[in-house]
Design a protein that fits this description.
Helices cover 32% and strands 14% of the residues. By secondary structure, the protein is of the alpha/beta class. The protein has two domains: 165 residues, no CATH class; 311 residues, Peptidase S8/S53 domain (Rossmann fold), CATH 3.40.50.200. The strands form four sheets. A seven-stranded parallel sheet has the order 7-8-6-9-10-11-12, sandwiched between helices. A three-stranded antiparallel sheet has the order 2-1-3, with helices on one face. α1 packs across α2, α9 runs parallel beside α12 and α10 packs parallel to α11. 55% of the residues are buried.
């Protein structure tokens, strides 16, 4: 068990002990016992292997759902809708969950949970504020609330006004299909000369950029004027190449902006605020470097769209979107980016093998209501788990799914990359006969670090999309996506593992 998950479980124990000690005793003495973590994990693993799809809590029976809450922090996401609403995911921009009938419905559902909880556990005298958990995006009809009562879950599941009710905090860390956490970034101890090319003023172009004709595309576009939102682990305060008052504008990168925000709350205290924008993992810094590192000096690596603007949001602690605080952080970050009229592209090198309706709602909002292009990683795992297909949210129709392959032909996915029918594009990011991957910024300094997987492929694709969009900022998302397709190596055919294929950035920009 990781330190992070140990802390989460410790907090769950603290909540139960401090807020509902009698509840645990009452359950032990009189009530039905919840399933063990081992039993829950076994069901989840069996379901994923049987369906070859991400796990969805709506496929769990009532006992499994309730047990997952008991075995975690008891925080559930409750999505709701007014009677008669249809195809809500395309209409979020037309509703106001904070007022009128929507607010009344929300209050009624919360009160149902409060009443059922007090009925099941007399003497507790819970109030709504005792059970309400994380602050969800105000644009979306979702409430985050602690549910201890199995009867409350049963009642909610039977209501047509409830779109979903799912545990946010359950994480089966014992099951052997978890993705690599993606943290721990160090500058490369040595970099073979074949892995880069030095160009003016004094930056390193990673070897794999030329396999996608990115340098050739720079003759026509460098991403100027286009905003990319990076939903990840933040950016390092020690990396001056990613500081507005540092070297973000340096050399041939000028007149652009980087905005750093944070939506992730790492503290277990209910009243805690988001941690801030500073990367404590390294992954977000690397992705920011691939997208938008400046074409400056000092021998650092350059980004694909080195004149683009960047909105970097720390939404999660690592690349696995698991746990109540990370799901909430990602949903809030996507919504913030969606509401930013400047942002055209969201780059998300994060995900999980669990479907989250909370995150999905935020993606629907960004896609249908705000017209954003969302680019997501197909999945990066340890080599012995890379049998798994495309993870969430890259498996959504509303996202552009990207994975990584090795250089050369025939096409072979990278050692730790996922592939599958949902993949739209691929990026060459690993040497054919070695583990060397692409270069990007480290947490500080000019010495690059190596980074690979579908994360790298996603960030590079976001950069290429920015190059295309900058050529004509009035283009629609569909027009830009079609140019990426037309410039892909397999198009108009589509491969069952690698989608439309490798993107030729020069061709995409030239169309």
């Amino acid at each position: 068990m990781s330190f992070k998950n140990a802390i989460i479980l410790l907090f769950a124990a603290f909540v139960v002990a401090s807020c509902s000690k009698e509840q645990v005793v009452e359950q032990s003495a009189n009530a039905e016992q919840p399933l063990s973590r081992q039993e829950i994990n076994a069901f989840i693993e069996q379901s994923i292997q049987h369906t070859n799809d991400v796990f969805r809590w709506e496929n769990a029976d009532l006992k499994l759902l309730w047990s997952a809450g008991v075995r975690s922090d008891s925080v559930f996401a409750l999505g709701y809708q007014l009677p008669g609403e249809e195809d809500l995911k395309t209409r979020f921009h037309l509703i106001d969950p904070q007022s009128g009938a929507w607010a009344e419905l929300r209050n009624r559902l919360v009160q149902l949970i409060v009443d059922e909880t007090n009925r099941e556990f007399p003497g507790k005298n819970y109030k709504a504020d005792d059970l309400l958990a994380y602050q969800m995006p105000k644009e979306l009809p979702i409430v985050s609330i602690r549910i201890f009562s199995k009867n409350a879950l049963k009642a909610l599941r039977a209501m047509p006004e409830v779109r979903y009710v799912e545990p946010m905090g359950y994480s089966p860390e014992e099951v052997n299909f978890r993705s690599d956490a993606g943290c721990g970034v160090n500058p490369a101890s040595s970099i073979p000369s074949a892995d880069f090319q030095t160009i003016s003023p004094s930056v390193k172009v990673p070897w794999n950029f030329n396999l996608h004709n990115i340098q050739q595309a720079w003759a026509q576009s460098t991403g100027a004027g286009i905003w990319v939102a990076l939903i990840d682990t933040g950016t390092s305060p020690n990396q001056t190449k990613l500081q507005q008052n540092g070297e973000f504008n340096s050399g041939q990168s000028s007149g652009r902006t980087i905005t750093r925000l944070g939506t992730y709350v790492s503290s277990w205290w209910p009243w805690a605020s988001p941690d801030g924008p500073n990367d404590q993992c390294g992954h977000g810094t690397q992705m920011a470097g691939l997208i938008a590192a400046p074409r400056g000096s000092g021998g650092a690596s350059v980004g694909v769209a080195y004149n683009s603007n960047l909105l970097a949001i720390r939404a999660t602690g690592d690349v696995i979107v698991n746990g109540s605080s990370e799901i909430t952080g990602v949903a809030n970050a996507i919504t913030i980016a969606a509401n930013n009229t400047n942002v055209k592209i969201l780059s998300m090198s994060i995900g999980d093998v669990f479907w989250s309706n909370t995150v999905a709602d935020a993606i629907y909002y960004a896609y249908y209501s705000k017209g954003k292009m969302l680019i997501s990683a197909a999945g990066t795992s340890l080599s012995w788990t890379s049998w798994w297909g495309v993870i969430f949210p890259a498996n959504m129709a509303e996202t552009v799914a990207v994975t990584g392959v090795k250089e050369g032909y025939p096409l072979v996915r990278c050692d730790v990359c996922h592939s599958g029918s949902e993949v739209d594009f691929i990026i060459m990011m690993q040497r054919r006969n070695s583990s060397n991957t692409s270069l990007t910024l480290a947490m500080s300094g000019n010495t690059p670090s190596y980074v690979g997987g579908s994360s790298t492929a996603t960030a590079m694709t976001a950069g290429i999309a920015a190059l295309v969009w900058a050529k004509n900022p009035s283009q629609t998302r569909t027009q830009v996506l079609n140019k990426l397709k037309n410039a892909a190596s397999i198009y108009p055919s589509r491969n069952s593992e690698f989608g439309w294929g490798l993107i030729n950035a020069q061709t995409a920009v030239s169309q």
